[in-house]
Design a protein that fits this description.
Chain B: Belongs to the cyclin family. Cyclin C subfamily. The structure holds two protein chains of two kinds. Chain A is α+β, with helices and mostly antiparallel strands. Chain A folds into two domains: 34-119 and 345-367, Phosphorylase Kinase, domain 1, CATH 3.30.200.20; 123-337, Transferase(Phosphotransferase) domain 1 (Transferase(Phosphotransferase), domain 1, Orthogonal Bundle), CATH 1.10.510.10. Helix content of chain A is 33%, strand content 13%. In chain A, strands 1-2-3-5-4 form a five-stranded antiparallel β-sheet, sandwiched between helices. In chain A, strands 6-9 form a two-stranded antiparallel sheet. A two-stranded antiparallel ribbon of chain A has the order 7-8. The longest helix of chain A is centred in the middle third of the chain and has 20 residues, at 136-155. The termini of chain A are far apart. Chain B is mainly alpha-helical. Among the domains of chain B are: 22-49 and 78-186 and 334-362, Cyclin A, domain 1 (Orthogonal Bundle), CATH 1.10.472.10; 190-228 and 242-326, no CATH class. Chain B has helices at 3-8, 11-16, 20-57, 67-76, 82-102, 109-125, 133-147, 154-159, 167-171, 174-180, 191-205, 220-228, 242-258, 260-263, 266-269, 272-283, 285-295, 305-325, 334-349, 366-375, 385-404, 414-423. In chain B, helix 5 (82-102) runs antiparallel to helix 6 (109-125), helix 13 packs across helix 16 (272-283) and helix 16 (272-283) packs across helix 18 (305-325). Residues 59-72, 359-389 and 400-424 of chain B have low confidence and may be disordered. The chains are: A alpha+beta, B mainly alpha. The interface between A and B is large, with 48 and 53 residues.
């Protein structure tokens, strides 16, 4: 390499030299960064800014670039949400999990995640829009994609811990993608503790509300069951306005947890013994069929298996996928023909800028932060 | 999908697995690039000094007249070899174990193992001549606490780091380290596989074994009888019972995984299951052999695909075992300690002066940086070369003085401090 003698006035030559002087890892980062062009801003939240971008050499192949904001409140380096999201998305490659194409840093040392572009919004949008009509075959298609996605996470020993309709994004071909891994973690080793402060309240299973520190993929399955119910009812099925209210509503809907129907439940840290005058018997198949007639009896059976109070009796993702509902009539709608809605691009911008565990703006009072102190075993 | 398919999608396989040859090439490239940079940077620093001196003295410094001395001085800059770099990194990997041990309660082995792998991955594309491992090591461990769910605050973490290392010093190279890790944080360790294998062997010994897919005719009772009649492990007294034997094998294998597997290139060259099986074979060869036999038949004709698979597997396991056996802890080897001092001394003279402060650069958000720059009336957020040069010169001078004052070669070496503490 030619080196010009450094005189004080040769500022310019030194600057260009520095470009050539990039370290190997900086060069690799530059290469990745150079692959993409940031076009317009899609959304901005407290946690991130999302841009629409495309591959430099192909302006028709879109990507979403999520630039993680530096949290000035958090002095301990890159935030846990960002670390979790990057860690798990780097490992998970599946049609029903949002793809992380690349990660690069921009010159101001901000982290940029190059994500799959999912222009058709999320399931929450479809559920809430009364102009959109959908039926059992559509629900089956969406649920199939969601269940396969979560099966793949669990097969890779990853708990998602924030499944809810607005974390289920929709690709241009109609494929549902599990997104927002800001609360994800890998399965803990036996006997070690995890935090129970995860999963947005309406989708949170009773064991976490009771403060369980050791749990499994069953927590995600409960959330999947809640999404299933919400898709059928078009409103959240158990929507508590506090953690306590959430437990009350779950008991009213599914039955009161007791040592008989859930051995060990009374030993959970935050267990509240039921008032003997107000116990609700565990709901059976008739209840689910009555509540969710559109699911049909086979579908109601699958839903029931996902909503078992005792996490040990809840189906696993693998068991859920083997259920006969998938092959029963009606067949799931082909993804190309699923109902769609416009305005999804903006929604993706909103969805990707949320921090894990946050509800949308209208539920802001319910938003929580992770309690890091309680995470340590 | 079988387990291998899952493993092949992991970042550990995609980005951090090598052949011996490709590993050597990567390190060689990193070393030679860093050596070039060091020589250039040191020359640049010297020229800056000279030109400052000469302009101060008012004498012009015609180009070419000092060409001979230049070449002479350049030859003096002796850079680390790739092997020396690896020895140095291994030394700091051992320091991670010690640092993790010093917390109350001690950090889990898995967090320390992740940090070690981060450090090893970092130094595949970076040289210790560019970034000194003493600044990168604590940061790698702190990142591992975050990625492996062992959360502690930076303040808490910094309090446990001996010497005058501040929280800011620790977090400063975080982005640099993460970028060098190519933003992949998941490390697939052999520990969980070992736990599973030991559970299986325990079940077999209790008559609860299950037949493997290739061997449907195995019965739980056959398996139990076979494990009970295994010859004892080499050079050890016969264990009193099978559960003692399994407990001992478990413990000894874990120790190998916590030490030799971390300090050698095992993770770069082998898969987690290859590593724990090799370690088990070192701890209790007949047991490891038995475990394999329960999974993989041993057809007599050598042309059989399963026989070929088996031969290939055994060869891989044996070369991995050889690698694991090659590890000698620094503490137990005076020769290595001596070599380490020499390398440390050598590094002092070939540390890239232009990167000394890079690790100390704060992670400044763009907005804040712009605000600082505009407040200073300077449109650029890079320091001017003049002030930077002065700063570096000062820093080196300071370091040289410390060196003279008899501070040890690594400038605050944890092990040394610790032994001093113990002796005190």
């Amino acid at each position: 390499m030619a080196v010009s003698p450094l005189a004080p006035q040769s500022f310019q030559s030194r600057a260009s030299e520095e470009v050539a002087d990039r370290e190997i890892t900086e060069q690799m980062n530059d290469e990745v960064r150079h692959k993409y062009i940031k076009a317009k801003k899609l959304g901005e939240g407290t946690y991130a800014v999302v841009y629409l971008g495309h591959i430099r050499t192909d302006p028709t192949s879109f990507v979403a670039i999520k630039k993680i904001k530096v949290n000035t409140e958090y002095r301990d380096g890159l935030s846990m949400d960002a670390i979790r999201e990057v860690k798990y998305l780097q490992e998970l490659s599946h049609p029903n999990v949002i793809a992380l194409h690349d990660v690069f840093s921009s010159k101001d040392q901000n982290l940029n995640l190059v994500l799959e572009y999912l222009p058709r919004g999320d399931l929450e949008m479809l559920i809430k829009d009364s102009d959109i009509h959908y039926g059992a075959a559509d629900v089956k298609a969406w649920m199939g994609m969601l269940t396969r996605g979560i099966w793949f996470c669990h097969e890779n020993f990853v708990l998602h811990r924030d499944i809810k309709p607005n974390n289920l994004l929709i690709a241009s071909d109609g494929e549902v993608k599990l997104a927002d891994f800001g609360l994800a973690r890998s399965f803990a080793d036996p006997y070690s503790n995890m935090t129970h402060q995860v999963i947005t309240r309406w989708y949170r299973p009773p064991e976490l509300l009771y403060g369980a520190r050791q749990y499994s993929g069953a927590v995600d399955i409960w959330s999947v069951g809640m999404v299933f119910a919400e898709l059928l009812l078009r409103v959240p099925f158990v929507a508590g306005n506090s953690d306590l209210d959430q437990i009350t509503k779950i008991c009213e809907a599914f039955g009161t947890p007791t040592e008989e129907n859930w051995p060990g439940v009374s030993k959970l840290p935050n267990f509240i013994p039921a008032d003997n005058n107000h116990t609700v018997p565990t709901q059976g198949r008739e209840f689910f069929l009555r509540q969710f007639p559109t699911a049909g009896s086979v579908g109601a059976d699958l839903l029931m298996s996902m909503c078992s109070l005792d996490p040990r009796k809840r189906s696993t993702a693998y068991q859920a996928l083997q259920h006969s509902w998938w092959t029963a009539e009606p067949r799931p709608t082909n993804k190309e023909y699923l109902p769609r809605k416009s305005g999804g691009t903006r929604k993706m911008g909103d969805d990707l800028t949320r921090r894990g565990g946050e509800l949308d703006d209208q539920f802001k009072n319910a938003a929580r932060q992770l309690d890091f102190g309680s995470m340590k075993g | 999908m079988i387990e291998d398919d899952f493993y092949r999608t992991s970042s550990q396989f995609r980005l951090w697995s090598f052949t011996e040859e490709s590993l050597r090439t990567v390190r060689q490239k990193t070393n030679s690039l860093a050596s070039d940079r060091v020589r250039i940077a040191l020359r640049r620093a010297r020229e800056a000094r000279q030109s400052a001196n000469s302009s101060a003295a008012g004498t012009p410094n015609p180009n070419g007249s000092d060409a001979d001395s230049k070449a002479g001085e350049e030859k003096d800059i002796e850079c680390l070899t790739s092997e020396e770099e690896q020895d140095l990194v291994r030394y700091y990997c051992e320091q991670i174990i010690q640092l993790g041990e010093s917390y109350k309660p001690p950090m889990p082995s898995i967090v320390r193992a992740t940090a070690i792998q981060y450090l090893r991955r970092f130094y595949l594309t970076n040289s210790p001549m560019t970034y000194h491992p003493k600044t990168i090591m604590p940061c790698a461990l702190f990142i591992a606490t975050k990625t492996d769910n062992y959360y502690m605050s930076l303040r808490q973490f910094a309090d446990g780091v001996p010497g005058d290392t501040t929280a800011e010093d620790i977090i400063a190279p975080e982005f640099l380290v993460m970028q060098s890790l190519r933003f992949t944080f998941d490390v697939r360790h052999p520990f969980r596989g070992l736990e599973g294998g030991i559970m299986e062997l325990n079940a077999i010994s209790q008559g609860l074994g299950e037949p493997a897919p290739h061997l449907p005719n195995q019965s739980a009772e056959d398996l139990r009888r076979a494990i009970l009649s295994l010859p004892p492990p080499l050079n050890t007294p016969s264990p009193p019972s099978i559960s003692d034997r399994l407990a001992r094998a478990h413990h000894n294998t874990r120790e190998i995984l916590k030490s030799a597997a971390q300090m050698t290139d095992a993770y770069f060259l082998y898969t987690p299951s290859q590593i724990w099986l090799s370690a088990l074979s070192l701890a209790d060869a007949p047991l490891a052999q038995f475990y394999l036999d329960t999974k993989l038949p041993n057809p007599t004709e050598s042309e059989h695909p399963l026989a070929q698979l088996r031969a290939k597997l055994l060869q891989t396991l044996s070369s991995c075992a050889t690698l694991l056996q090659s590890y000698k802890p620094l503490g137990s080897d005076p020769e290595q300690k001596k070599a380490m001092r020499r390398i440390g001394k050598k590094l002092y003279h070939c540390q890239n002066p232009e990167k000394v402060n890079l690790a100390g650069q704060k992670r400044i958000p763009a907005a804040a940086a712009a605000a600082i720059a505009s407040a200073a009336g300077n449109p650029s957020d890079t320091p001017t070369p003049d002030s930077e040069m002065e700063r570096l010169a000062k820093k080196r001078k300071l370091e040289a003085e410390q060196q003279k004052a008899g501070n040890d070669i690594f400038g605050g070496d944890l092990v040394m401090e610790r032994t001093r503490d113990r002796q005190a």
